[in-house]
Design a protein that fits this description.
Length: 184
């Protein structure tokens, strides 16, 4: 049995908790808390993730993925490295509903690129069901995603779309393992 540790990264509001919930076969562990007036967010989100999301999915009879969603707010950035330690790859989700939302993701994307330069990843542009959602090429430019990294569209509420994103990431991890000459 092969077990992969996958991290779901991206800023606050990108859709990480939704993604883990959509795919998880076990009751996902959520650590979202109600947002109080002390935590103004400026949108209609009623909860926010303060520790991490966890979900698990059996992809094949011999492959299980463990999904760890990091807390998106920068005040929890000390946890990003802790949660990411030992990961096989990460999906970086951005809220594609506006260019400003994508710009919110730049610092966190840089953090992951700098701290995990060799870790396979895929960038997902979420909320493609909304009118005027940004396309993958605009997001590639805004985040300065290297040409060899895939940027894919995502609707995190859709199981089909979430599965597609997971499969793209598994493919990137597989390619990386092949070039490393590892079969683990
Ligand atoms: N329209 C739309 N809304 C989404 C999608 N994915 C997540 N959301 C919404 O975006 C908000 C933030 O999602 P959440 O999963 O809590 O983001 P997180 O902060 O990254 O964990 C919530 O109100 C979700 O219902 C999507 O694919 N389409
Ligand atoms: Mg969350």
């Amino acid at each position: 049995m092969k077990i992969l540790k996958i991290v779901i990264a991206g800023p606050y509001g990108a859709g990480k908790t939704t993604f883990v919930k959509t795919l998880s076969e076990v009751l996902p562990i959520e650590t979202d808390v109600a947002i109080t007036k002390a935590q103004p967010t400026g949108d209609d989100k009623r909860t926010t993730t303060v520790a991490f999301d966890y979900g698990r999915m059996k992809v094949r009879s011999d492959l299980v993925v463990h999904l760890f969603g990091v807390p998106g707010q920068e005040r929890f950035s000390f946890m990003w490295k802790i949660i990411a330690r030992g990961m096989h790859g990460y999906l970086f989700i951005v809220d594609g509903s506006s260019a400003d939302r994508v710009r919110d993701a730049v610092n966190m994307y840089m953090f992951f690129r700098e701290n995990f330069p060799d870790t396979p990843h895929v960038v997902a542009v979420n909320k493609q069901d909304l009118p005027n959602a940004l396309d993958v090429n605009s997001v590639r430019l805004l985040l300065k995603v290297p040409y060899y990294i895939k940027v894919i569209p995502l609707i995190a509420t859709s199981r089909k779309s979430a599965l597609f994103a997971l499969v793209e990431l598994l493919e990137a991890i597989r390619n990386y393992m092949i070039t490393q000459g590892s079969n683990q």
